[in-house]
Design brief:
Layout (H helix, E strand, L loop, with lengths): L1 H4 L13 H4 L11 E10 L2 E17 L2 E12 L1 H4 L4 E10 L5 E10 L2 E10 L5 E8 L5 E8 L8 H6 L12 E3 L2 E2 L4 E2 L1 E12 L6 E13 L2 E11 L6 E8 L2 E11 L11
Length: 270
C-alpha cells in the first residue's frame, strides 16, 4: 500500500536544517479541498476497477496552533477483497504557517495484516527530530527516536509541501531528492521529471495539460521506477493519474472528481 500512497509525492525543493527552511509557503490548496480517485488493477490483461481513494483537507489545530488536517482513505471493493483486503487511513497535521509536519498516523489493513504507524515531529537546534511508534501486526508496540540534520517528511506532509514547488526551472531529466520516513526507517528515493503531456480523464470529457514524473526508489542496491504520475500543469499541481508497478502486478489511479480547489484550473483543456 505504501507504493499506492506515494502518489502523494510530487516534486519538492530539497532543503536542510532549520524548521523555517523545511517549511514552504502554501499557494496550491486550501481547507475544504476534496479529491476522489478510482483504483484499477490489471487482471489477466484486463483493467478492472478494484476500489476507491479520497483525500480531504480541513482547518484544525495541533498543540493549540492552527494546522491543516489532511486525511486519505483507501478502500478495495468486493472484487479486490477476494484477492487482497485493503483498508488504509492516513491522518496528517501540518503547520498552516509553513506546512512543516507535526504529526502523522497511518492505520492499515493489508491482507491479513493490520498495523499502525505514528510520527511526532519537533525541530530542536535547527534539526529534525522524529519520535516513532509502530504497532505491528502481532500487536507489539515498537518505539524509537531519530534526529536528522536534513528535513524529513512522511508520505502525506511531503505531498502537501510538494504541491507548492517552484517548477519554472525544471528541465526534462532533472532529479529531485525525496527523503521520507515511516515508523521503521528513512527511505532514499527521488523523482525524475519526464516533461509534459496532455491527459484525458477516464470516462469523462475532461482533459488536462500535465507534468509527468517518475518516482524512483533504491532497494537492496537496485533502482526501480515505482510510479509514473501526472499532475496538472498549473498552480494546483493536482494529481490526476498514476501508473504503478507493484510487486503483484500493475495498477492505475484515475481522478474521478474534485471540489474546493484553490486556484483556477488553467491546465484544464476542456
Amino acid at each position: 500500500m505504501k507504493k499506492l500512497i506515494i502518489f502523494l509525492l510530487v516534486m519538492m525543493p530539497f532543503s536542510v536544517k532549520a524548521q523555517s527552511q523545511c517549511g514552504i509557503e502554501n499557494k496550491a490548496f486550501k481547507a475544504g479541498e476534496f479529491l476522489a480517485y478510482d483504483l484499477y488493477f490489471n487482471w489477466k490483461f484486463v483493467w478492472v476497477k478494484v476500489g476507491a481513494a479520497s483525500m480531504s483537507t480541513v482547518m484544525s489545530t495541533y498543540n493549540g496552533l492552527p494546522a491543516y488536517r489532511t486525511s486519505l482513505m483507501t478502500k478495495g471493493n468486493d472484487k479486490l477483497d477476494g484477492v487482497f483486503v485493503m483498508r488504509d487511513t492516513i491522518t496528517s497535521y501540518c503547520s498552516i504557517n509553513d506546512l512543516s509536519p507535526q504529526y502523522y498516523r497511518k492505520g492499515a489493513l493489508e491482507g491479513k495484516r493490520y498495523y499502525v504507524d505514528e510520527l511526532w515531529y519537533s525541530y530542536p537546534n535547527g534539526k529534525t527530530k522524529v519520535k516513532m511508534h509502530r504497532i505491528n501486526h502481532h500487536g507489539e508496540h515498537q518505539w524509537q527516536e531519530k534526529e536528522y540534520n536534513e528535513c524529513i517528511y512522511d508520505m502525506m506532509s511531503i505531498f502537501l509541501r510538494a504541491r507548492n514547488f517552484d517548477d519554472t526551472k525544471l528541465k526534462k531529466g532533472d532529479i529531485i531528492p525525496m527523503p521520507i520516513t515511516d515508523a521503521k526507517h528513512r527511505s532514499d528515493s527521488w523523482l525524475v521529471y519526464r516533461g509534459k503531456e496532455n491527459y484525458k480523464v477516464e470516462d469523462t470529457e475532461e482533459k488536462f495539460r500535465c507534468q509527468v514524473f517518475s518516482f524512483i526508489e533504491r532497494e537492496e542496491g537496485e533502482e526501480k521506477e515505482l510510479i509514473k504520475f501526472f499532475v496538472t500543469d498549473d498552480a494546483n499541481h493536482m494529481p490526476v493519474r498514476l501508473d504503478m508497478n507493484l510487486s503483484f502486478g500493475s495498477a492505475k489511479v484515475y481522478l474521478r472528481s474534485y471540489q474546493g480547489v484553490r486556484n483556477p484550473l488553467k491546465a484544464k483543456l476542456r
